[in-house]
User: Fold this.
Amino acid sequence: MILCWEMMILSFRMRFTYYQKGKKMLLHIPHSNTTIPSYEEQMAKNKDVLEAIEKYTDHRTSELFHYEKAERVEYGYSRLFCDVEKLEENEPMEALGLGILYEVSNASRKYPEKALATYKEHHQKLLETTKKQKEMFDKDGYSIGVNTPFSGTIIPLELYGDEVVYTDEEVYWGFVGGD
Assistant:
């Protein structure tokens, strides 16, 4: 057992050193903001919307996960304005009014197309940043885990399902390609 722990510690030190070389980590922070754009004034002043913002915001996530050596993709508005972690099509939460555009009050949106435009912009930035990170790892002979360690992790749709990529731990411990 001691040998296993020593190998895990060595593995961690090697990875930590590798991450120290540059921005080799991607932090996606989609739900930390509480802002509703000023052009959606009716929505921004609605009591139900304001209560839902308090309830559904991942408060202080942006500050908690601030790491200067990481690439960050952070959404600039509240998920009540537009939830960028929802599927563009076939979103199961849509039936509950919690799809891309939440329906938590009678406060109508004046410009839903603007909210959907921010969704597309955010996903384009996430795609570009993910590709950039993947290229850096590939160039250095590493692979990145996709949809890991948690299945259902958001992945730019363009990259989803293109390949199967395993974590170093899976390969190391023989979960992949082993007897």
Residues 21-167 form one domain. The chain has a mean pLDDT of 76.
